[in-house]
Amino acid sequence: MEKGKVNIKKLIVIGGSAGSLEVLLRVLPGLKVPFPYPVVIVLHRKQSNDNLLTELLSLKTKIKVKEIEDKDALVNGIIYLAPGNYHILFEEDYTFSLDDSERVNYSRPSIDVAFQSAADVFGGALTCILLSGANADGADGFLYVKERGGETIVQAPETAEVAYMPEQVIANKSADKICDIDGIANWLNRM
Amino acid sequence: MEISVDEQDLKLLLNDLIELYGYDFTDYSKASLVRRIKRLLTLDHFPSFAELRYRLKTDPDYLNRFVEEITVNVTEMFRDPDFYVALRQQVLPAIGSKPFIRIWHAGCSTGEEVYSMAILLHEAGLLHKSLLYATDLNPNVVERARQGIFPLAQMKDYSENYIAAGGKSDFSSYYTAQYNRVIFNEQLRTKMIFATHNLVSDSSFNEFQLILCRNVLIYFDKELQNKVFHLFDTSLDRLAYIALGSKETLKFSGLHGTYKQLGSNKIWRKEK
């Protein structure tokens, strides 16, 4: 447990809603393998017990894609996918806890909840990316991440299928960088 | 403005709860506990963490509210219908051969799962020889579960779950609606025993053919999960079953080797 903790120098958490799956399908194939950090993806999705999304994302990358189970440990070079109907939380020992309490921003998983919990544990070692969506989830989380020294990147609204979600973090001035889809991929590979 | 919760403050508060009220949240998932406490600080407009601690120490009635809000009581009837299909097809036929069936719903919350199980047993012709023990650490939710009264508005979703779970009857035949609520049939409730039981501090109280503990252990840390798994182990007959939530697993527990998972379902059978 402690060994894994020392090894993880950075965490990337990607949040998205309507229109974000297409972005991931374009970004994931270009990621370098092995990828040096854990990547956690939090998408608004309906069903809790379908493996389709995991399979779909797996097809697009050689990086291992895993749907999160309670108390899974973070490992470099794995893409973790938040399961439907649960919030994801990060523990001090770099494991996940799941939480099925109230929806936040009408959402479970909530992107705000994931960003905030990741920032509590990773502080300045966290990079959060917010993609297309029709909901304000992620906007409070971005502010929280900034306050704790983390880095925030948002998909350029004009490149997003639904611009509303990216626009919220540009409006609250919590985005460090605004990138188009290729820009997001390049940024991840340079980290 | 959000109030931060530091480690030391949290420790003091948790110690108060143990000493004054006997509730031990020490080994709950830290991330979850801190999140729930921050939420309560906001909901109840506490100006500081110290104010919450003072209120808890001086107002025993507020403890009820604290426990209610810190623990998560999200549940529904026939949640994850596939899980109930597996119970129907794989578990009930196996335990149905016993002369008497004891089932424990550990962390039953407001009881939706217990009523679902009673319906399943009824339809399998096993309810007459079954007893369902339903426990939770929160006496308020146990009382609500005992009453078997649920909001009418949820029955549409529950009915859909019931059908997806392989239900063949008319779901509404299991309850009587009155105004905006329904009460489930007495026949189902006569086979239920409700009690408060704290998985952290209370011990085993019987032997069971099936224990259901779904989406309860996610709020515990790994060590406490392990402790509870051992409590369950001592409460299970050989070839009895344990059922967990859809994203929970036995694999981090020391028991992994003596239990066999039923396919990809979150149901394990005790082999030794």
Describe this structure in words.
The complex is a heterodimer of chains A (191) and B (272). Chain A is of the alpha/beta class. Chain A has one domain: 3-Layer(aba) Sandwich (Rossmann fold). In chain A, α4 packs parallel to α5 and α5 packs parallel to α6. Chain B is of the alpha/beta class and 272 residues long. Chain B folds into 2 domains: 64 residues, no CATH class; 190 residues, 3-Layer(aba) Sandwich (Rossmann fold). Helices cover 42% and strands 19% of the residues of chain B. Chain B contains 10 helices and 10 strands. In chain B, the strands form 2 sheets. Chain B has a 7-stranded mixed beta sheet with strand order 6-2-1-7-8-10-9. In chain B, a hairpin with a 5-residue loop joins β9 and β10. In chain B, α1 runs parallel beside α3. The longest helix of chain B has 15 residues. The termini of chain B are far apart.
State the CATH superfamily name of the largest domain in chain B: Vaccinia Virus protein VP39
How does the overall form of chain A come out from the CA principal axes? Answer: globular
- Structural class, from secondary structure content of chain A? alpha/beta
Strand order of the largest sheet of chain B: 6-2-1-7-8-10-9
Count of beta strands of chain A:
9
Cα-atom radius of gyration of chain B: 20 Å
Our count of helices of chain B gives 10
